[in-house]
Amino acid sequence: MRVKLADRVAYVTNKLRTLGFQNITLAVYRPGPTSMDGYYRLKAIKYDFKVFISELILGGSVAKYSYTLIYSEEVVLRYDNAPHHPYIKTFPHHKHEHDRVVPLPDHSVDAFIKEVKPLVKDP
């Protein structure tokens, strides 16, 4: 599925809102040469949780990404495709769960949001 940068930012922002995140900030927005290219970084806050979403969009597809959930100052969950764990079955896609690095078969932002949802429930 090809997507425009602006549409992708709106989609991810709405997904974060459905989880109750507020103070959603577009920290970086760098459009590319076409509407199907560019980079963005979002920051969202809910209670002691912070989410950082960054994606590089090339030709309408997510080429590079990092999705991070932080509680207080501890990274609870991160999805990314940095090529630094070649032994992982789904290389370069992997996730960090606290101190563990594990395979990541579904590396979509939707999968990340689904995994974050029960962690950030309202008290």
Produce a short descriptive summary.
The protein is of the alpha+beta class and 123 residues long. The protein has helices at 5-18, 109-116, and strands spanning 22-31, 38-46, 49-58, 61-71, 74-80, 94-97, 100-103.
Plain-language structure description:
The relative contact order is 0.16. The chain has a domain at 5-75 and 107-120. Helix content is 18%, strand content 45%. It has 123 residues and is of the alpha+beta class. Strands 1-2-3-4-5-6-7 form a 7-stranded antiparallel β-sheet, covered by helices on one side.
| Unreliable stretches | none
Question: Could you give the order of strands across the largest sheet?
Answer: 1-2-3-4-5-6-7
**Run of helices and strands:** HEEEEEEEH
- The quaternary structure here is single chain
Radius of gyration: 14 Å
Total E-strand runs: 7
Continuous helix count: 2
Mean pLDDT: 95
Q: Helical proportion?
A: 10-25%
Strand content: 35-45%
Major beta sheet summary: 7 strands, antiparallel
Write down the overall geometry: globular
Structural class call reads alpha+beta
User: How far apart, in Å, are the first and last alpha carbons?
Assistant: 36 Å
Please render the helix and strand layout as text.
Layout: H1 5-18, E1 22-31, E2 38-46, E3 49-58, E4 61-71, E5 74-80, E6 94-97, E7 100-103, H2 109-116
Antiparallel strand pairs: 1-2, 2-3, 3-4, 4-5, 5-6, 6-7
Tag the structure with descriptive keywords.
seven-stranded antiparallel beta sheet; 7 strands; 2 helices; 123 residues; alpha+beta
